[in-house]
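In the lab's daily routine, each protein ends up as an entry in a very long ledger. A line of letters takes care of the sequence, but it says nothing directly about the fold. The three-dimensional part falls to structure tokens, numbers that each stand for a local backbone shape. The outcome of that step, for a single protein, is printed below.
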Amino acid sequence: MIDYQKDHEDQYDVSNKGKPWTDEQLKIILSDAPTKENCAKYAVLFKRGYGSIEQIYRWAATPINSLEGKGRSNDSFVLQIKKVARQIGLRG
């Protein structure tokens, strides 16, 4: 099911793709386990791409000093994810 959804993402409503995330949406995602099933569930729920949900989990878990070499340590979205992750007690 998940592979099908990833392969046919163009058939799903992704009308929020590219739009800003709210802290509340990020809290909902980061409060749940980083599984394929949850990535698929939240992609449909928030009308986003599967990969964007997966990336939120990755950036939340990656230490900020590891993101410096990739030019992401000052990215406003990454900083928002890190802020929300700290608020709910995640380390990364």
Notes: The mean pLDDT is 88. The two ends are 30 Å apart (CA to CA). DSSP finds six helices and no strands in the chain. Helices lie at 2-7, 23-30, 36-45, 50-61, 64-68, 76-87.
